[in-house]
Every structure is written in C-alpha cells, then in structure tokens.
C-alpha cells in the first residue's frame, strides 16, 4: 500500500506540472490535439547490445490528418556504476545490472498518409548518448543528447537538429508487476531557424505485463515557436514487445 500511495503521489505531481505548463501557453492561438499510437519491438542480442524497431502513427483529432514513421536502431550499453542497483528500466521488463552509458544509432523514415507523402516527408539519421545516475529511494535521473541529420521534403533539404532531454523515473513493484512512472523535458535546437524553437514535456508510466509485453501511456505537451501549431497536446499509447537471444537471457 505504501508503494501504491507513492506511485499515485508521483503521478499527481506529473499531472500538476504538465497542467501548469499547458496553462502557461494555453491562451495562445494555434492549439492542436493529437493521438500517437506506437508499437516498439526490442531484440536483445547480449547484455550490452540491443536492436529495436519503432512503428509510430500520429493522428490530428480535429482534422484527421495522419503521419506515419518507421525507426530502426541499435544500441550499446557500457560503464558500470559502483554498487549500482539491479532494476528495470523504462524499456526493459526484467531486472538487470544498470550501465551508466548507452550509445544508440538509428534511421527514421516518415511521411504523411493518404496523400502520397506530399505534405510531409522525412529521412533522418540519428545518434544518441544516454547518461544515467541513480539516486536514493530508487529514483533514476538520465540525460540524453541526440543529434538528427534530416532530409525534409520531396526535394530533400538538409538540416540538423540537436536535442537535450532530462528524465526522472522510478520503479514500483506492485505484487509481481513493475510500474515505472516518469517525467521528462526536452529542448530542440533546429539549424533551419538557428534557434531553440521547441520544448516538449512528457509525463506517463510503463507497466510490465509479462516477460514479452509492456504497455506505456503518457501525456505530451509541446510548444513550438516556429510552427503554425504553437501548442500541441498529445495522448501517446505504446505497446512494447521484447525478444532476446539465449545468451542474453542467461545474463
């Protein structure tokens, strides 16, 4: 019961912070609401190496405009934490020894749907560095630096984007079920504008259903100074599916 009360308190705090952020910009024109369903497939090759693929859709509630994207990635975790805990991460369903660093590279392709991609088309190569720091009471703070090399449009125009994300998460065990509530904030620098044009705030939770499946849901608020949609409110639902080799399962 104590763990459940802490979980509820954490979720209420997330909701309060996001509500306050939304209210700060809520009087502006250019608000929009979207739904982002997503399926993520994870394949662990070893304790350090992992492949993943994300299939994501977005739908504008007011206009029914839709976009789709596919991401393929590979990541490598390294760097032991002295006296580091064994715990689950947001994207893992089994407790493992925590690694301090994670490097990830990937490729994204996306386009608008139902219009042959004329309204939106993107191809992006991405590189990420994650740095994790555990704190008392099971709280995990992670920093993510990401660079995007982007080709936008049917006649592709090259641009770059730099992103920094700060995330706080904590695992709760309710019976044999792992629940990981989290909150994060991310800033985007876009070379097209030579400015930090976007800020995104997310709060949600991941629930491990079994060794193979987990569900994640979150609420996203995004403010963009260079878009016709200045304030975006999103409900995101993600199904995680996990696979691993026999070698990875033994460790």
Textual characterization of the structure:
It contains 2 helices and 14 strands, in the order αββββββββββββββα. It has 251 residues and is mostly beta strands. An 11-stranded mixed β-barrel has the order 1-2-3-6-7-8-9-11-12-13-14. It is globular and about 50 Å long. The chain starts with a helix and ends with a helix. The model has no long low-confidence stretch (mean pLDDT 86).
What CATH architecture would you give?
A: Beta Barrel
The separation of the N and C termini measures: 32 Å
CATH-defined topology: Lipocalin
Helix content: 10-25%
Tally of individual helices: 2
Shape annotation? globular
CATH class: Mainly Beta
Q: Widest sheet: strand order?
A: 1-2-3-6-7-8-9-11-12-13-14
Mean pLDDT: 86
Our estimate of the beta-strand percent is over 45%
Structural class: mainly beta
Q: Give the tally of structural domains.
A: 1
How can the largest sheet be summarized? 11 strands, mixed, barrel
Taking pLDDT < 50 over at least 5 consecutive residues as the criterion, the unreliable ranges are none
How many strand segments? 14
What is the helix/strand order? Answer: HEEEEEEEEEEEEEEH
């Amino acid at each position: 019961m104590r763990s459940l009360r802490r979980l509820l308190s954490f979720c209420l705090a997330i909701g309060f912070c996001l509500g306050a952020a939304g209210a700060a910009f809520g009087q502006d024109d250019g608000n929009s609401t979207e739904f982002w369903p997503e399926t993520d497939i994870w394949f662990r090759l070893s304790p350090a190496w992992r492949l993943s693929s994300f299939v994501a859709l977005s739908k504008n509630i007011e206009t029914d405009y839709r976009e789709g994207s596919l991401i393929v990635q590979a990541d490598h975790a390294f760097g032991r934490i002295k006296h580091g805990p064994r715990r689950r991460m947001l994207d893992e369903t089994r407790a493992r020894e925590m690694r301090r660093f994670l490097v990830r590279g990937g490729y994204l392709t996306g386009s608008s749907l139902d219009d042959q991609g004329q309204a939106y088309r993107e191809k992006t190569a991405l590189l990420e560095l994650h740095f994790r720091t555990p704190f008392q009471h099971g709280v995990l703070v992670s920093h993510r630096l990401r660079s995007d090399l982007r080709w936008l449009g049917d006649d592709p125009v090259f641009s770059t984007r730099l992103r920094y994300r700060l995330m706080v998460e904590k695992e709760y065990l309710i019976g044999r079920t792992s629940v990981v509530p989290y909150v994060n904030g991310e800033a985007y620098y876009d070379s097209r504008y030579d400015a930090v044009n976007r800020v995104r705030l997310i709060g949600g939770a991941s629930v491990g259903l079994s060794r193979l499946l987990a569900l994640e849901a979150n609420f996203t608020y995004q403010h963009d100074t260079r878009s016709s949609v200045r304030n975006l409110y999103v409900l995101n639902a993600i199904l995680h599916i996990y696979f691993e080799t026999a070698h990875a399962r033994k460790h």
